[in-house]
Amino acid sequence: MQGLYAFNGTESDDFGKDKRFLLTSIDNMYNLYLLNISLLIEVQKKAEDYLIKSQNKHLATKEEKNPNRKFVNNEVLKMLVENEQLQAKFEEFNISNWELDGEYVDLIFKAILKSDLYKDYTETRTSSFKEDKAFIEDVFKDIIAPNDKLYDYLEDKKLTWLDDLPTVNTTVLKLLRKVKPDSSPFHFIPKLYKDIEDKEFAIKLITKTLLNQSALTTEINNKTTNWDSERIAQIDLLLLKMGVCEIQNFPSIPTKVTINEYLEISKEYSTPKSRIFINGILDKLVKEYESEGKLNKIGRGLM
């Protein structure tokens, strides 16, 4: 959708630049994931450094001399810190933001120290893997993910990251919830694409939509004769083009799945009434294609 929205050309143009934008944006989602994981590691390192500095104070208190190391020794954090494959990924994708922007590590670390989560967690000095995991889950969900300053930082770095952030944060949480003491080192190195078909789908969808804009526009106009075209939101028209293109050109994708996906996107990016509008137009077209025998779907449960 972003690539199509940014497109400024005609059906006869070379779409190489637009495909590159699409694939680069998808790749950047993986960078964002690694950046979030590396933040957890840097927070653990910050905690270790904080304890060392407190112990070396000239007038260190008894508590500072013998600190609670529960957070520093958190087993999930240690898994991340000691994961050589993950470190290799950081190097491969040049994930070094926190070396220059360490103030955000400080920001998150201080927020953790002030939280009731930390207070409750450090009431004891020992814990199980289960408790360690639950604590890191809660820290990420309640402190890191909703942090406004971190959000602004990510927006400044890459504009497309704001759209990717919910998906990336959900992925991080899922991996944290599923991690076990004996999990593979590759547990925290998920694949960007499930398989090559995912990547091909993205390229085919943007290409087919761009190549057939006139025909798609005509198809939509025929179903919106009672609507003032100038009052139809630009995003709605774009989502309709993508939806119609997907219904026409991807026989393995159920029409219900297609419609539901675009309704969800409209809720996020368009007007409050867009959902009803898009659903009505796509539903009409599907019924028309069915009656005319034009709906080319294969497999079970695809209507």
UniProtKB/TrEMBL annotation:
GO terms for cellular component: cytosol. The keyword Transcription applies. Residues 196-287 form the NusB/RsmB/TIM44 domain. SUPFAM superfamilies: NusB-like. Transmembrane segments: none annotated. One of its GO terms (biological process) is DNA-templated transcription termination. Keywords: RNA-binding, Transcription, Transcription antitermination, Transcription regulation. It comes from the Bacteria. One of its GO terms (molecular function) is RNA binding. Belongs to the NusB family. This is Transcription antitermination factor NusB. It comes from Bizionia saleffrena.
